[in-house]
UniProtKB/TrEMBL annotation:
It is an enzyme of class 2 (transferase). The keyword Phosphoprotein does not apply. Keywords: Acyltransferase, Chromatin regulator, Transferase. It comes from Strombidium inclinatum. Its EC number is 2.3.1.48. One of its GO terms (molecular function) is protein-N-terminal amino-acid acetyltransferase activity. One of its GO terms (cellular component) is Golgi membrane. The keyword Acyltransferase applies. This is histone acetyltransferase.
Length: 108
């Protein structure tokens, strides 16, 4: 688990799952994402499996990343992605790409 600061007192946890069985168990849970309120910001856990392979390259899969409507267009999603990439690069230097799961009704 890594923590990043987004404000003076606001911290977001990024949960890393790098064990295949644990990843499968977590992603199969219907209500896996444990959301947390940080002032007006609602972020869901960012989970990925760095062992995932895409066309023979090591990659990570970001299962969910969300910002509530009132806090969009403030760069918070980009901040979460940037911090996730930093963590992945530090822990898994061979990781060459990331895949972000996006729902088809997301218009943001």
């Amino acid at each position: 688990i890594s923590r990043i600061k987004i404000g003076k007192d606001d911290v977001i946890d990024i949960h890393l799952h790098n064990e295949d069985e644990e990843f499968k168990r977590q992603t199969s849970a219907a209500y896996y994402w444990a959301s947390q309120m940080l002032g007006d910001l609602l972020c869901k856990n960012v989970c990925f499996n760095p062992k995932t392979k895409f066309k023979e390259a090591q990659g990570c899969y970001i299962m969910t990343l969300g910002i509530i409507d009132e806090c969009r267009k403030m760069g918070l999603g980009s901040l979460l992605l940037e911090q996730t990439y930093i963590i992945v690069r530090d822990l898994y230097p061979d990781c060459q790409m990331a895949y972000l799961h996006v729902v088809d009704y997301n218009t943001a």
